[in-house]
Automatic annotation (TrEMBL):
Keywords: Coiled coil, Receptor, Signal. It comes from the Bacteria. Residues 1-21 form the signal peptide. Residues 42-69 form a coiled coil. SUPFAM superfamilies: Porins. This is TonB-dependent receptor.
């Protein structure tokens, strides 16, 4: 390299050095400015966070102090001191679920009363309605009373009469699978008993329940249920009650304590995803006194009977349900059956009705009966909204000892039975129309072909029915 080239390179370096130094200085200054602003922003956020934490701690301390003050003040108040409640918030206002059930029918059947031959009637008179009839209308109200209790009321209206079918409270938070119900309720015995008429699968009840209870067993008292923490459904229950309803009586219930008690056990589970089942065993004991019943005596004159003694009933029930993949909306099938065995012993009185041409002479003597019966029914929903069903019930009048009253009364040696067919259509979950045929053979030599066209309408929300 020549001297001239060396001088030229040195000149170029001297010229480029200041040009490169200037951007580097600007970059360093920008970086320093960014670091300074970032530190300031970080310090500002930390200060705000610290302020918020202090405010939260202060609020928590204030709340704790207020709670301690309230508890201290409450402890100082005398138990009898009047307390003025503060206005309840709008969300806790009394707002129960209310529904109205409308039922009616056209009934084509033989006229007159049709008591069940061989059985003391479960009520004053047998049903006599025919033609266009208005069945009872139900008014139902239910709501949670507070976090610990729930209340339920069911009123039945028939013409000018109002009947309280159910009015009870039920515990919600006892825990350990325990539930307590108090008031008037449908007994938990059997399978059909807890169902109201609008939830029946047929327009009338089965023969077993007509013979045992008239419609269903109602209890005024206390009920306790225990649901076991097991994979299979296992429920145990017990009831103590006043016992004024059949098979008890008003006179038998006129005392301190209980004149009726019941116990039941239910076991159930699933079989695959499409099948489920439940089986049960129940026991009922009652102590009726002068329980009224109307029968025809040997002169075919209506006679009053008064029974006093003990009544014991065993019930066994079984239910099997099928729905494809557990979804009953399109198709489903239900089979249910119950069997009962009832024993009654005590005294039977038949007041004098000779003035009316009757055969009773006001005699009181021993009465003993051992009777049984069963029913089975099958319901098939073959498409949405449409169902068909069949039911058969049969009673055995069994052995009945009347004592001296055998001279004026006679219970026919008959096995009453009834066979039913039905088809119903539900335009929605709130309405149903049903057509039913009964072949009724409850009386000796008097079979009856019955046709029933029924409607059921539900206005307002209504809770789901039991299994």
């Amino acid at each position: 390299m020549s001297k001239r080239d060396v001088y030229l390179a040195a000149a170029l370096c001297a010229f480029a050095a200041p040009a490169l130094a200037a951007p580097q200085a600007e970059l360093d200054a920008l970086r320093a400015e960014f670091d300074e602003k970032f530190k300031a922003l970080q310090a500002d956020y930390e200060a705000q966070l610290k302020t918020l934490e202090e405010r939260v701690q202060a609020a928590e301390a204030q709340a704790d102090q207020a709670q301690v003050t309230a508890q201290t003040t409450a402890a100082k108040v005398e138990p009898t001191a009047p307390m003025t409640p503060s206005p309840a918030p709008l969300t806790s206002a009394f707002n129960p679920d209310i529904s109205l059930i409308l039922q009616g029918a056209y009934i084509d059947r033989a006229g007159g009363e049709r008591p069940i031959s061989g059985f003391l009637p479960a009520g004053e008179h047998a049903h006599t309605e025919r033609g266009f009839t208005l069945d009872h209308t139900e008014l139902v109200m239910s709501a949670n009373i507070d976090p610990y209790l729930r209340g339920y009321l069911n009123l039945a209206f028939v013409d000018e009469e109002t009947e309280i079918e159910e009015a009870w409270f039920q515990s919600l938070q006892l825990g350990h699978g325990l539930t307590v119900k108090g008031g008037r309720f449908l007994s938990g015995i059997g399978y059909q008993n807890e169902k109201h008429p609008h939830a029946w699968d047929f327009a009338d009840n089965n023969l077993v329940y007509e013979a045992l209870f008239g419609e269903h067993l109602i209890q005024d008292g206390l009920q306790m249920r225990w649901l076991a923490p097991t994979e299979l459904f296992l429920e145990l229950g017990a009831e103590v009650a006043k016992g004024q309803f059949f098979p008890g009586s008003d006179a038998g219930a006129d005392k301190n304590g209980a004149s009726s008690w019941a116990a039941f056990a239910h076991l159930g589970g699933d079989v695959g995803v499409s099948h489920s089942w439940r089986a049960g065993l129940s026991y009922l004991s009652a102590e009726p006194s002068e329980r009224e019943g109307w029968v025809d005596d040997l002169n075919d004159v209506e006679a009053l009977t008064l029974f006093s003694g003990d009544s014991e009933t065993w019930l066994a029930d079984m239910v099997w349900k099928w729905a494809p993949n557990g979804n009953p909306r399109e198709r489903n099938f239900t089979f249910a059956a119950e069997y009962f065995q009832r024993k009654e012993n005590g005294d039977l009185n038949c007041p004098d009705n000779s003035a009316d041409g009757g055969a009773c002479l006001d005699l009181t003597d021993g009465y003993d009966s051992d009777q049984s019966g069963w029913y089975a029914q099958a319901i098939y929903q073959f498409m949405p909204r449409w169902r068909v069903g069949t039911r058969y019930g049969r009673l055995t009048s069994g052995t009945t000892e009347l004592g001296m009253n055998a001279a004026s009364l006679e219970f026919a040696d008959l096995n009453p039975e009834r066979w039913s067919l039905m088809a119903d259509y539900s335009p929605s979950e709130f309405s149903r129309f049903r057509l039913q045929y009964n072949r009724d053979e409850m009386q000796v030599g008097e079979p009856d072909d019955q046709f029933i066209l029924q409607y059921i309408m539900s206005l307002g929300p209504h809770g789901a029915h039991q299994f």
